[in-house]
Design a protein that fits this description.
Strand content: 25-35%
Mean pLDDT: 89
Order of helices and strands: EEEHEHEHEE
Number of strands: 7
Radius of gyration: 14 Å
Helix content: 10-25%
């Protein structure tokens, strides 16, 4: 992903009666030392994800003190897609193209693993 591009984050809200709702999309502009997106690569990732490795990406959030607790499993991201004007005020996240699979807090940054939705 090109630095300076925008990605959008929809936080998963508590579900009432089995209906999952999401927050309005929050825009983040990618830049080094703040937020960047990279595809999964390497031997270990290939072994872990197999043929679906092309559908998995990593979002690196830094500094950790700023981002702690802001992303959780089940949240949605618009990475290759952009939300429509309707989706910017909505709470269903239907146009988001990635879902958060894992959040790993490290010493200085947070690694967020996202998988492409159907």
């Amino acid at each position: 992903m090109k630095l300076g591009s925008s990605i959008y984050h929809c936080k998963k809200l508590s579900s009432a009666g089995g209906i999952v709702k999401y927050s309005q999309p929050i825009e983040y502009v990618t830049r080094l030392g703040y937020c960047s997106v990279m595809p999964k690569t390497g031997l270990l990732a290939t072994i872990q994800y197999g043929k679906s490795i092309s559908k998995v990406q990593t979002i690196i959030l830094s500094p950790m003190s700023f981002w702690t607790g802001s992303v959780k499993e089940g949240d949605l991201f618009y990475i290759d897609a952009e939300p429509t004007a309707e989706e910017l005020i909505g709470t269903d996240g239907r146009g988001a193209d990635y879902i958060v699979e894992g959040v790993l807090e490290q010493n200085r940054s947070i690694l967020v693993t996202v998988r492409k939705r159907n």
